[in-house]
Amino acid sequence: MAKYSFELKLEIVTAYLNGEGSYPYLSSKYQVPQSPLKRWVNSYQTLGISGLQRKRQNTSYSPQFKLNAVNLYLTSKKSYREVANDLKINESPLLTGWVIAYRDKGEAAFSKPRGRPRKEYKVPKNKDFDLNTNHQVLTRLEQENLNLRMEVEYLKGLRRLRQEQHKRENHEWSANSDENSSSQSRNS
Fold first, then answer.
1. Are the C-beta atoms of 63 and 110 separated by less than 8 Å?
2. Within the chain, what is the greatest distance between any pair of CA atoms?
3. How do the domains of the chain map onto residue ranges?
4. In terms of pTM, does the model score above 0.70?
């Protein structure tokens, strides 16, 4: 469950926008810290009522979007909040994290795969295990694979030639039979 209900957020934001009090006053009245109040007012002013609603699913942003957002922040003299508002991002700390990651790792920070990394096969530590032998076996298998591919391509080419030859022969036969039938019909 969310820490603060949607109704409470909306009540506080409308109270602030109606001029019922300042952030410190509303903070003490509703027993809520000032920083969330400021975020809620900003979200409401930027995104409307949907800015106060709790999202059921996290929004995922493409690496290109993140890179564009970081470039916008770095090239403009705007604050994180202002850039987040321009891009319709409800949480400016998200943009802050992207900028920090970009400064640490560059563009590579946004191209990493998500999820758990693949488990790599560990080579058994066996005295009889010889990498050179395995390399030779792998080379032999690759050569065999190449030879089989070449053989398949050769056989496909032969098949194609036979089919073309068969079509030509059938075409000539059907053309000859057409000539025979037309000459017979003339004689009759």
1. yes
2. 116
3. 1-54, 61-112, 136-188
4. no
